[in-house]
């Protein structure tokens, strides 16, 4: 009987923990601010940012944890933010707001990544060393790696939260609107501003392409891929118009250049089939815009992927580069 009683006591305690865990998600059903804070916690814990973060090493373990139970200081252990988000995201009302919120969080986190997670007042100025460009004590290469991780995490949250509809909204509406009205971001001074701006553009490029691959894949095997040419075509129309000077952008020039070159580079290297599906005239315009950004090699690769229909333009570009 003592053994049976002990087992029942453990079972009751586990049920109590479960009820507490379930009740903790109620606030996220009614408060957008709470959802945003939970997402921020997911990013911060995974990337290991912030001096107060209990998950200093970051990673998937920090995001998803190791379950929950009654083995922590005599009570229920802290629930990993990723587990909590997976518990509540289906109950979020009107998930469309998540697109803009994830973009905003990503842009704010880029600065923290560039400064090594230090508070604003403690971030060191950018400086050049014999080992290359450094922002604070974090190398630019290391920052770009963490930015890619942040973009992947953002794309994952966007995909599980709303699927194709949220990603289509990101590509056709949210990103163009952000470039047209990007304001409210903290501005740095000197070279540090340029580094943060470049990382932001690179982060958005990775975020957009990764989100697209989740929604439509890299080939034509899924039925969802049938909608891909239209959505990507709309986005490239925006890029072409901006590169042609038909649209005035409000974002940092370095951010825009990094985004365009990053987005097109990822398409060329990772999703060439996307390019083959696009309108030839559109690709010509984007290629010309890339050349204006001194991205001649990328412009040439873009045309080469499209095949024989653009061989004349490819030959002309090669001859101009040679002579």
From TrEMBL:
Q: Which residues cross the membrane?
A: 150-171, 194-218
* Transmembrane helix recorded as keyword: yes
- Cellular component terms (Gene Ontology): mediator complex
Gene Ontology terms describing biological process: regulation of phenylpropanoid metabolic process
Print the keywords alphabetically: Membrane, Transmembrane, Transmembrane helix
Q: What is this protein called?
A: Mediator of RNA polymerase II transcription subunit 33b-like protein
- Give the organism, scientific name: Trifolium pratense
- Lineage of the native species? Eukaryota, Viridiplantae, Streptophyta, Embryophyta, Tracheophyta
């Amino acid at each position: 009987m003592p053994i049976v009683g002990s087992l029942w006591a453990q079972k009751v305690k586990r049920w109590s923990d479960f009820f507490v865990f379930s009740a903790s998600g109620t606030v996220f059903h009614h408060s957008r601010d709470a959802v945003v804070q939970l997402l921020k916690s997911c990013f911060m814990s995974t990337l290991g940012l912030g001096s107060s973060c209990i998950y200093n090493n970051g990673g998937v373990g920090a995001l998803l944890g190791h379950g929950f139970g009654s083995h922590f200081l005599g009570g229920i252990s802290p629930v990993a933010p990723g587990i909590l988000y997976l518990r509540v995201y289906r109950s979020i009302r009107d998930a469309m707001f998540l697109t803009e919120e994830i973009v905003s969080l990503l842009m704010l986190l880029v600065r923290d990544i560039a400064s090594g997670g230090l508070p604003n007042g403690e971030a060191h100025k950018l400086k050049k060393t014999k080992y290359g460009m450094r922002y604070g004590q974090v190398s630019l290469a290391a920052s770009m790696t963490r930015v890619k991780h942040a973009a992947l995490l953002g794309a994952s949250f966007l995909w599980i939260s709303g699927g194709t509809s949220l990603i289509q909204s990101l590509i056709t509406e949210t990103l163009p609107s952000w470039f047209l009205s990007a304001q409210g971001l903290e501005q740095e001074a000197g070279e540090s501003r340029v580094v943060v701006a470049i990382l932001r553009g690179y982060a958005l490029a990775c975020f957009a392409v990764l989100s697209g691959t989740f929604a439509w894949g890299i080939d034509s095997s899924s039925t969802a891929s049938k909608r891909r040419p239209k959505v990507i075509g709309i986005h490239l129309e925006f890029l072409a118009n901006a590169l042609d000077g038909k649209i005035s952008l409000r974002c940092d020039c370095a951010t825009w250049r990094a985004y365009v070159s990053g987005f097109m580079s990822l398409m060329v290297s990772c999703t060439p089939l996307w390019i083959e599906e696009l309108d030839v005239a559109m690709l010509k315009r984007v290629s010309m815009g890339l050349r204006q950004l001194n991205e001649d090699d990328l412009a040439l690769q873009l045309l080469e992927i499209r095949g024989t229909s653009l061989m004349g333009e490819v030959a002309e570009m090669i001859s101009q580069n040679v002579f």
